[in-house]
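Reopening this one. Same input as before:
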Amino acid sequence: MSRLVLEGSWVLLEGADESNQEDIDQLDVARAALAEMGGWFSRPPPATPWGTMLIRTREGGVPIGVIDAMPLPGYPAVFNVSMFVDPEARGTGWAIDAYGVYISHIFDQGVRLVHHEVLEMNRSVRRIMRGALLEPTARLRDHGYAAGRLWDVLVYSYDRGHWDTVLAKFSGRRLGHPSPPPSPPMG
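Same output, byte for byte:
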């Protein structure tokens, strides 16, 4: 069976397998170093062909991130989505491109609700959620420990109808980035 590949305007998303595991492992180490990501991420085996995907730039094929969707036990067709993008690639439009392609794909696969858990200290993701017309649907008090203290975890969730509203908001633009991103990092 061939690996799933999703194509964005500026990125490619590759299903995780042995050929890209080293890149995913290196990104996981970088992710663990950032307090706003909540420390080490213990990734279970993917439940679907799109459960874990490596994000690469189309130009040069540089690995810049990982996106995961895991089913929430006891909640039919609700998937927790987590994404990490190398800090050197932030602000380029690659992450938004990858997220847009991925979320559209998983809704096409029958996901009913997308669920995110975000540490309150993660201002960049909270800003993205506001841009996507989202406010937290729940707040878990003192739920996550990072950077030497407890933080609230903000829960965001949305369905296909909301996602279609977000896509319509950015119709004719690439989810907020009118021009292509710069050349990929060489790291």
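So the earlier flakiness isn't reproducible anymore. For the record, The mean pLDDT is 87.
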